[in-house]
Each structure stands twice: as C-alpha cells, then as structure tokens.
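Weekend entry, working from home. Most of the wet-lab plans are on hold until the incubator is repaired, so I used the time to fold the two sequences that have been sitting in the queue since the last round of cloning. Logging both here for the record. First:
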Amino acid sequence: MRFNWSTILGVTLIVATLTCAVLVGRRRGRCGLRRAGEEREMAAHPPERRILVVEDEPAIASFVRRGLIFEGFAVQAIDNGRDALQSIRDNPPDLLVLDLMLPQVDGIELTRRIRAAEAAEGRRQLPILMLTARDSIQDRITGLDAGGDDYLVKPFNFDELLARIRALLRRTTIAATENGEVLHFADVSVDLGARTVVRDGRGLQLTPREFDLLALFLRHPNQVLTRSTLMQRVWGEDFFGESNVLEVVVGNLRRALEAADEPRLIQTVRGVGYVLRES
C-alpha cells in the first residue's frame, strides 16, 4: 500500500489546529469570552510583549499565532527569512519563534545574521526559539551554535511551546533588572547590564543561554552546582528538554572561554554537575 505523504501531512496539521482550538476553548470557556479572573492571567503577558513567528507552513503558523494571541501576546507571522530579517531590523520583537527550513534565507542563516548585527551594534540579544522537524543531536547542536536559545522539535504540544516562551521571557525580564552589576572571577568579568563578557581583555560573544549560565557560575564560585539546579535556574521550571542540552551549552561556553588557550574554569564534577574554580 502506497501512502500519499502530502495528504497525511495535511491531515496532521488540520488535527493539530483543531486540537489547539479545543484546548484554547477549554481555557477561555466559549470563544471570545473570558472566565472571571482571566484578565489577571492576560495581564501577565501585556500586549507590548511582541512575538514574531517565522514559519512557512500556513497551518502551523496559524496554529501558533492564534494560540499565542489567546494567551495575551501581540503576534506577527511572516513566511520567509528575508522579510523576517527586515521586520526585526525595523521593529524588533521581544521574542522570535523561528522555523529552520525557510525559503530565501533559512533559519540558521537568519539567526547568524541577527547575532552578528547585535554584536556589531551592541544591542541586547533577541531570544530565539527554534522550531524544526529535524531531531538529530547534530541538528540541535547546529541550531544552538548558530545562536538559538531553545530548540523544539515538530510535532510539538502547544503548552510546551508556551512554557518555553514564558521561560525565555522571564530570563529577559530578570536580565533587565540587573543593570550596572558586574561579576568577576579570575580573569573573567561579566557585565549584567550590558550583557558583555571579557576574559583577560578579550571580548566573548555568547548566546543568551551561555551568558545566563556563566553569570550563574560567577554568582556561585567554587560551589558545586548540580545538573538539576543549573537546568532549573537557567532553563526554568517549565523546561521540557533533552538530556544533553546542558552538556551542549557548557561545551560551547568552554570553547568561548578557552579560545585563546586560557586555562579551564568550568570543571566537571562527575555524577553531580559543574563548578567554577581555577585548576
């Protein structure tokens, strides 16, 4: 028996969209109506929290856009990388939900261009949540190395997507309250307000996730931090993640810190976690 994969994909997307509508309907009661107290829930995500969704599959883009609007976010959807890049330059969002397989400019290249522009102009880094059907470990590493903050594989549950978005926005809010504080350890300095890192006079370009992880280590020098503590403090309690995501980010952070052959500062405590200390 031969399968028509286009038909199967179409049916899958329709079911996903209907599922989202049902879930959202259960949360809101009847369509367009809010239960008592839901104005407080909407206030947790005021309209100025803008999310840009870049996805070329219309059903998925609509599914994500409508779900996020129901949750109180202002959402714009774009279906190609070139227009997305222009929109980010003209009117930067608070968070980017980015499909990797895009026409014109793919998600990986778009992320690299965004990070390069931020570094050149000294702008705060935009939180990027990547969406993709590619689920291999190497694909995840490529996405994170390009500058992505999180990585969600299709098909996904809307509640998981929402939890990841909330976690990324919480970290952005916390970072905004830390202006002016500078952390030091050995020859490393971390400016929390400017979100810059210098080691022995050399500036480091880190992703937001790498920066948050390093800042956590500098707040607890010479203290062993368990894997669960690091995951909770950096990724948040809402994180639904792969078992190796911490190892990937620690590896990237070590490479950045040791790019000029400096001694290792982030040490592995086998079976427990990691510690920031001089060798």
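Second, folded right after the first finished:
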Amino acid sequence: MCRTLKRRPARAESPIGYTAPEKEPLLKTAVPTTSAPPSNPARASRRTSLKGRAAFLREFIKSPGTVAAVAPSSPRLAAAMLRGLDVGSARTIVEYGPGTGAFTRAVLDRIGPAWFAGALTSPIGGAAAPTRRFIAIEYTRALADMLGRSHPEITVVHDSAANVVPICEARGVRKGEVDCVISGLGWPSFTDELRSEILEGTAQMLKPGGEFRTFGYHVGLLMPGAWHFRREVRRLFREVHIGRVVWGNMPPAFVYRCVK
C-alpha cells in the first residue's frame, strides 16, 4: 500500500487524530419467532476486502501523486514485513501510510486484544495516559476515516509522516520511546528533502534497538529516489537488511529491516 505524501505546513496546534462518531442509541425490537440464517464470516471478510480495494483504487484515480499504488499490499507482503518482529512486547507502535489497513490488521492479529488493556485510544495523551499506543498516520482523508471506523482501538491521525515527531509528542510519546515503525509509503516518489525529513524523524523517535520496517517495489529500483532512500537509511541506522522479493505481491516487493 504505497502512497506519496505531500508535506504540509507546520501546524500551530497539536495534530488531531481520528475520533470515531458517537454510536446511536440501541432500539428495542421484538424478537422474531424464527431465527435468521447464520452470518458467513468468510463472505463478510471478502466484502470488507473488496470495499477496501475499491476505496484504494478510487483514491489512486483521484490523486495518483499521493496514493502511489493501485491496490493494497498483499497478506504475503504483510507477513514478510512482520517476520521476526516482536510487536507483542512493544509499548509504542507507529505506522505510516496504513491505507486500507493491510499491515494494520496483520499487527492487530499478532498483538491480540489483550495488548490494548493498557493502550491509549483517545486522540490526545498526556503524562497520566496509559503507556501502550498504536498510532497510524495516514495522509489521505478518506482512507484515514475508513481505517478509524474499522479499527477504533488504534489512534488514526490524518497528517503527513513528516510530522511524526510532533504527532507522537502530542500523545505523550517522547523521542527515543517508539519500539517500531512500520511503513507503507512510496519512498521513490518523494522529493529528496521530504524523504530525508521523514527518515530523520523516524530515527529520532525510535528507541535504541528499535526497528523501522518498510518495503520497496522491485520495479521501483529504476527510480533515482529508491537509491537515495538506501543511502539515507544506511546513514541513519546501525543495521540495514534487505529481504527477498515477495513475488506474491502485485507488483513484486521486498522488505527493508532497519535497526537503530
């Protein structure tokens, strides 16, 4: 799920995260004498997936310079992104460009509902706020709204990843406290300045030993921005590992594992 971000001017106020709409009061209804047919979880999952793909394609058509892929990332790429990463013991997880939530759902499956027992789900945190946070930063408003409705347990922020430092600090997360950053951004499509700014902010927020995981398209290596990205991560991180190509993704992609 790779998307291109346009940097926004610095904000005077703290960025505002997604707030789920208030639930309507439940209405009492008569209990039917015959039971309804049981729901089909597989069919519901397929409907959700198709809806997400349609939304992703719609945003690509509207803003191809912002959403740099025509389809969300595959489950195989999501599995490769998280391989060997202990997200369950993390205190703070940050995700860039979640889109329709392919990586988000993979993380949620790994950490489980119990992880959120002490997590921060309100938009703005503070010194007394619980210590576990999952912050997803999405630049496209429609995708941010969809993700926030689908996963109200996480904090979805409609903003640019270039503002990761103030976004985290506004939620009680200081520099050097993030356990891992997972990204679905389209790095080769950025300007060199924006690419460096996001990566420098990422390195500042990660704790020593923390990991930054992202991916690149195999065909993207034809773009100069892909090689600038490699130079920057090697400058900013202690270790940089490049995984094997995931041919089951469209287009084929590989994972970067960067350790601070």
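Plan for Monday: verify the second prediction. Residues 1-6, 9-46, 52-57, 59-68 have pLDDT under 50 and may be disordered.
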